Amino acid sequence: GDMRKDCLELMSSEGGRRMESVAYEAIDRVTASGDHNIVINLNDLRILEVNLTTSALRDKWLVQLERVWRRGVGPQRLSVTVYDDVSNTKIGEGKFTVYSIDHEDPEKFKIKTYVSLSSGGRVEVDAMYTSPQRMSREIFQSCDPNKLLFGTFLLWVNWYSFNSGSTVAVTGGGIKLASVVAINTTLAPCAAAMFAMFWSHFWTGRMMVEPMATAILGGLVAVCAGADVIAQWEALIIGVVAGFACINLVELMNHLKVDDPCAAFAIH
Predict the structure, then answer these.
(1) CA distance 29 to 106
(2) Quick one: which of 61, 67, 88, 75 has its CA closest to 1?
(3) Judging by beta carbons within 10 Å of its beta carbon (0-12, 13-18, 19+), is residue 37 exposed, middle or buried?
(4) pLDDT in tens, 146-179
(5) 77 phi and psi, to 5 degrees?
(6) pTM of the predicted model, to two decimals?
(7) Maximum distance among all alpha carbons in the chain?
(8) Which of 50-59, 60-69, 125-134 has the highest mean pLDDT?
(9) Residues 95-112: pLDDT tens digits?
């Protein structure tokens, strides 16, 4: 890699042919990893690991990147409100400025301050400050790809009991209908997942796990209504259409800043 004036030029470890430019403004956090590596968290929730040849070079990069990262951390104007537990009424409020740059970790640290009470006197308040960027990253990274896929496939398996179980009985010829439902319940999410993988690769250059999991659940939801009457090729089409719809609806919800972290609205 190369540290330029306005960006980092990093070479991919996949064959060492693809170069990627990372603007300093896109850096959210910089940390050391191992003896020679640096981990760079980006604002788009991607994580880059830079492998350097020596620990001395790693330390040099770390100092410079830390300076670039911390430069974007400005003072935060915060407000603290104190409520009475018994009457649930506000009894005090205080406003103060936090200078994040003064702390070892500007994104997350403890705060101690005093808040004046409306009835007179003041109380000491201990709080933990977490920046919005850190909070978003911790929420999303707590669900790593392995956990995300495990939860998705757990729902998928239970979908068979939901759809096939809705046929009420598997005796007296009911097994044939339950089998049709099970096959369609398999084909629709498979088609949605394949579409999501190619779609994300087309737009981002990589196959993303999150769109695939979203599309799988969208395909499962979409096939429910007609799983007992549609043909297998129709289940495939339903899955593709559902995958396209829910992936783009997730992007729309994010653009509109709608608080739907599980994509429940987009999927259903």
Answers:
(1) 10
(2) 61
(3) middle
(4) 788 888 899 999 998 888 888 777 777 778 888 8
(5) -95, 115
(6) 0.53
(7) 79
(8) 50-59
(9) 777 766 566 666 777 877
DSSP code string of the chain: -EE-SSEEEEE-TTTT--EEEEEGGGEEEEEEETTTEEEEEETTS-EEEEE-SSHHHHHHHHHHHHHHHHHT---EEEEEEEE-TTT--EEEEEEEEE-GGGSSSTTEEEEEEEEEBTTSSEEEEEEEEE-HHHHHHHHHHTS-HHHHHHHHHHHHHHHHHHHGGGG--STTTHHHHHHHHHHHHHHHHHHHHHHHHHHHHHHHSS--HHHHHHHHHHHHHHHTTTTTTS-HHHHHHHHHHHHHHHHHHHHHHHHTT---TT-HHHH-
d(CA 236, CA 93): 58
CB atoms within 10 A of CB 246: 25
Q: HSE-up of 152 (CA within 13 Å, CB side)?
A: 26
Burial 51-78 (b: 16+ CB within 10 A, else e): ebeeeeebeebbeebbebbeeeeeeeee
- Can you state the angle between helices 174-204 and 232-255, rounded to 10 degrees? 40
